[in-house]
Amino acid sequence: MPRFSGEPVITVVTRFAPSPTGRLHLGHAFSALTAFRLAEARRGRFLLRIEDIDTARCRAEYIDGIYEDLAWLGLAWETPVRRQSAHRDDYAQALARLQAADLVYPCFCTRTDIAAAAAAPHGAQPLYPGTCRALDAATRARRMAEPHAWRIDIARAAAITGPLSWHDTARGDIAAALEAEGDVVLARKDAGTSYHLSVTLDDALQGVTDIVRGEDLFSATHIHRLLQALLGLPTPRYHHHALLTGPDGKRLAKRDRAETLAELRARGVSADAIKHQLGFA
């Protein structure tokens, strides 16, 4: 199809962004292959990003394992690979912009404090009740030497942006439901950033056009869309895929000791067999 003069050429850019807190399992393989095949089909670019801001749980050997497993599956990615731990200044600058606009506030609450103050269904993550949002300026100033996180003031931010939406390939146009997520943490006490802030900024800085990830992160997209609006970042297309489950019906997870790709490989399962099992033959 011919292109007319001045018509923008949009290159599809996808990414796979695991945290090196354990070895990859079949769920990771499905997500990585989905992102890789989407880029391949559109003659685009596939990126690998290492989300290693959690210094307490991330391990260098798991990063090596990610490279090994993805190469075994036949995936190729651009280098250098972006590691979040090497770009904390980027996140600090984005947070500073939100602080200057009075859109975030320091939170001194512990998990115990939040659980005691917030009501939530059994097993659900309690919604933050806004305890520290109500602190006066003098109290905040006096307590700033204490360990604290930074939370976004959802109501204030939503009043600035107005209604927002984003597009999911499976569900169509989605109206951002911001208050349903509450005043989420944008900078953790121990990391100076959070998943929400880091991933949103990384995707913009790396020019990601299509985000492929599991449907367990669907609700997080409401917050990411808000951050894009507040920081003047582009909004990618989203592809939230179903999660793989084990024989017990539970989704595959590192914490539940889901069988890893390394373990499958060690017992003689081939990469082609894995791709056939996952529907990528």
From TrEMBL:
Keywords: Aminoacyl-tRNA synthetase, ATP-binding, Ligase, Metal-binding, Nucleotide-binding, Protein biosynthesis, Zinc. The keyword Glycosyltransferase does not apply. Residues 12-260 form the Glutamyl/glutaminyl-tRNA synthetase class Ib catalytic domain. InterPro entries: aa-tRNA-synth_I_CS, Glu/Gln-tRNA-synth, Glu/Gln-tRNA-synth_Ib_cat-dom, GluQ/Sye, Rossmann-like_a/b/a_fold. Gene3D superfamilies: HUPs. Signal peptide: none annotated. SUPFAM superfamilies: Nucleotidylyl transferase. One of its GO terms (cellular component) is cytosol. It comes from the Bacteria. The keyword Metal-binding applies. GO terms for molecular function: ATP binding; glutamate-tRNA ligase activity. Transmembrane segments: none annotated. Its EC number is 6.1.1.-. GO terms for biological process: glutamyl-tRNA aminoacylation. PANTHER family: GLUTAMATE--TRNA LIGASE, GLUTAMYL-Q TRNA(ASP) SYNTHETASE. Belongs to the class-I aminoacyl-tRNA synthetase family. This is Glutamyl-Q tRNA(Asp) synthetase.
